[in-house]
Q: What sequence folds into this?
């Protein structure tokens, strides 16, 4: 009797301790994550924010960021989807290093990535010389911004889409095959629609990553207003000259990224299917 | 016409079997779970490749290890209805049925017509715009059948088509499915673990035990001469088909069969029924019984066969109308002096009969 009572008392004490630790951890996390954002938003007065939005420098950076991120996301989807499909469905010797290669930009310092891109596609670079023969120079152009963004964003798409494709029930793939569908048809009509959630999530993640890309862009594409100066670059530059512009751009970037990710999370499940609503399973 | 001879190994399990089935017939492969039924269907559909053997459908070789032929699954004209139907969840019923036609490049207008005809044939035309999750099990079953049949396959593969349905839906679809399969010109391979379904659907029945066919033949072959304990227990049963004609004073239904009337417990007042009488439910006697057995048939003994595995029970086939098989112990057969040619009375009670 007394033993069980003391052990239950100990249980209550342990429970309290666990709760206390959890509460402190959650609090710390919010302080760490939310305070900088809060500080940023509080720094900008809404009226100034709106009036500075019309600023040509801000508009230019915004336009360039939206354009390059959109193109980069489209390219990421186009080349990432087949790669994710191969990773999810095939096996071959040497697949591991290839998978790591795709993941590498996720952990690499972006400046290193940009430097590597410069080494490859620079005028004297490995592939740059070949491109130069056709009169194409990549570095310090808008195209270079897109290349840097694609390079950095690809793993954010391939990862989830690969998992999404792998989780498509094999029965549906086999049903498609017995109905005479070729592999491409099965991919487009069955696998992609069923893995749609992961494709949309992956695209949104890589779009957000492209929007925020800084290190690889400034190293590989430079910082030319109107050509390669995207919003993150403009923020960095404004810090030294025009703090208010930096605040406006930062808040804008923050809101865009927050909206993108929040929209992704709160989209109803039915939104991922075509047309009709589907009752929950 | 389907002819196959297959050997396949999967870890410790091996499947080795060969069966022939004439065009338009239904081959039922019956066996307990784990006997290799689904594996067989996957081999026939081309979703798995056997180690050796051959598959010939209507004279066309789909697989031959000897001649090194392997037709890929997508080129086999096969309708495969998986146990859980595998309807595409993101497509409507009509889009599901259209899927195969589109893959074959059938023109859009023809696709629309054929999809509608297929859905109508299965009685689900009004569900065309629904998605699988909005359909009941029985409705999904019909859409899945429509999706397979719209391609006019040379081989129809059905994996436990009734097992995913509840009792009500099963009763509804059983009769329809029988008529549907009878109307097809292609061979149907129907796998099930339910002996009753095997007897009901099978023109040819193959008993699959641990990856081997222990017996293959017509319903009568299996009933009269079961070669394994499984076949004797589950397939060696009498099947009387008839129509309900009325009701007796004691509440039992009159069922008129080809060989006379039987009384069975059945709630409905009309319709076709199948009565399953297990040989052990039949009592044999030399004189007409006076007791409570409601159904009595007389006939000459045709054959006496010891039953597997040890022959302690004897299977007695009678030339009665309809022909019946009874099962008695060896002792009682000897005591009664049962020999071929001897006239006996076979009787069974209405209670305890299985009616479908």
A:
């Amino acid at each position: 009797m007394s033993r069980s009572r003391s052990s239950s008392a100990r249980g209550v004490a342990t429970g309290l301790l666990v709760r206390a630790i959890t509460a402190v951890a959650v609090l710390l996390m919010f302080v760490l994550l939310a305070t900088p954002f809060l500080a940023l938003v509080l720094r900008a007065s809404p009226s100034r924010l709106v009036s500075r939005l019309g600023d040509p420098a801000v508009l230019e950076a915004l336009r360039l960021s939206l354009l390059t991120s959109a193109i980069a996301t489209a390219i990421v989807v186009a080349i990432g989807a087949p790669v994710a499909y191969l990773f999810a469905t095939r096996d071959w010797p040497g697949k591991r290093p290839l998978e790591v290669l795709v993941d590498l930009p996720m952990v690499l310092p972006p400046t290193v990535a940009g430097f590597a891109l410069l080494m490859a596609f620079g005028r004297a670079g490995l592939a740059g010389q070949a491109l130069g023969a056709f009169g194409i120079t990549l570095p310090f152009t808008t195209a270079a911004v897109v290349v840097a963004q694609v390079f950095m964003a690809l793993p954010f798409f391939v990862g989830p889409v690969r998992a999404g494709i792998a989780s498509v029930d094999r029965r549906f793939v086999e049903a498609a095959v017995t109905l005479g569908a070729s592999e491409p048809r099965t991919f487009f009509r069955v696998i992609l629609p069923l893995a749609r959630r992961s494709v949309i999530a992956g695209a949104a993640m890589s779009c957000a990553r492209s929007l925020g890309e800084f290190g690889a862009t400034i190293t590989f594409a430079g910082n030319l207003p109107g050509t390669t100066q995207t919003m993150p670059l403009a923020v960095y530059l404004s810090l030294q000259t025009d703090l208010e512009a930096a605040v406006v751009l930062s808040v804008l970037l923050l809101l865009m990224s927050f909206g993108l990710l929040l929209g992704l999370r709160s989209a109803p499940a039915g939104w991922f299917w075509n047309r009709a609503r589907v009752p929950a399973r | 016409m389907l002819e196959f001879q297959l050997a396949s190994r999967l870890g410790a399990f091996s499947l080795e079997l060969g069966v022939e089935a004439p065009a338009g017939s239904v081959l039922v492969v019956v066996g307990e779970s784990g006997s290799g039924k689904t594996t067989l269907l996957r081999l026939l559909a081309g979703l798995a490749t056997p180690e050796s053997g051959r598959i010939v459908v209507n004279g066309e070789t789909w697989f031959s290890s000897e001649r090194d032929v392997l037709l890929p699954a997508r080129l086999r004209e096969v309708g495969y209805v998986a146990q859980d139907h595998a309807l595409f969840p993101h497509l409507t019923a009509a889009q599901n049925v259209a899927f195969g036609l589109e893959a074959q490049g059938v023109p859009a207008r023809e696709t629309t017509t054929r999809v509608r005809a297929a859905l109508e044939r299965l009685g689900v035309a009004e569900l065309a715009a629904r998605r699988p999750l909005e359909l009941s099990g029985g409705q999904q079953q019909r859409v899945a059948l429509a999706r397979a049949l719209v391609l006019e396959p040379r081989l129809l593969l059905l994996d436990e088509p009734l097992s995913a349905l509840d009792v009500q839906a099963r009763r509804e679809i059983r009769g329809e499915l029988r008529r549907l399969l009878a109307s097809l010109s292609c061979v149907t391979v129907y796998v099930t673990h339910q002996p009753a379904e095997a007897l009901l659907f099978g023109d040819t029945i193959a008993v699959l035990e641990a990856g081997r066919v222990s017996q293959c033949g017509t319903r009568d072959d299996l009933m009269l001469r079961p070669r394994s304990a499984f076949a004797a227990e589950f397939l060696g049963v009498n099947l009387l088909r008839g129509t309900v004609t009325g009701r007796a004073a004691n509440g039992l239904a009159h069922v008129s069969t080809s060989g006379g009337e039987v009384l069975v417990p059945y709630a409905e007042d009309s319709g076709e029924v199948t009565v399953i009488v297990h040989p052990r439910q039949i009592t044999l006697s030399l004189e007409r019984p006076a007791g409570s057995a409601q159904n009595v048939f007389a006939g000459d003994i045709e054959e006496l066969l010891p039953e597997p595995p040890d022959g302690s029970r004897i299977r007695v086939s009678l030339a009665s109308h309809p022909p019946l098989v009874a099962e008695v112990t060896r002792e009682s057969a000897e005591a009664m002096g049962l020999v071929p040619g001897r006239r006996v009375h076979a009787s069974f009670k209405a209670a305890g009969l299985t009616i479908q």
Q: What stands out?
A: Residues 1-43 of chain A form one domain.
